[in-house]
Design brief:
mainly beta, Luciferase, domain 3, ANL_N_sf
């Protein structure tokens, strides 16, 4: 989510996206690693006329499933790849 994470990082960690911007809540599906899940007011609420697609793209807490595989290093998030290639 380009609007969600602050890319300003001086840690020198390869592929780090930095820390979440204010107002953005981020979690990972497996604790300190896994799919990047994002919640904020700027994320769309649903697919028009497609409740099944909407249910597929959000978890039970309404976090958006980005499809990105990420791990947490300190306060930063490091991109390790993609879980899927659906860039919805």
């Amino acid at each position: 989510m380009g609007l969600s994470l602050n890319g300003d990082t001086d840690t020198g960690i390869d592929r780090s996206t930095g820390e979440p911007e204010p107002g953005v809540t981020v979690k990972l599906s497996e604790g300190n690693h896994g799919e990047l899940l994002v919640k904020c007011l700027l994320i769309f609420s649903h697919y028009l006329g497609d409740p099944a697609a909407t249910a597929n793209m959000f978890d039970i807490e309404r976090y958006y499933k980005t499809g990105g595989y990420v791990r947490r290093v300190g306060a930063e998030y490091v991109i390790d790849g993609r879980i899927n290639t659906n860039c919805e």
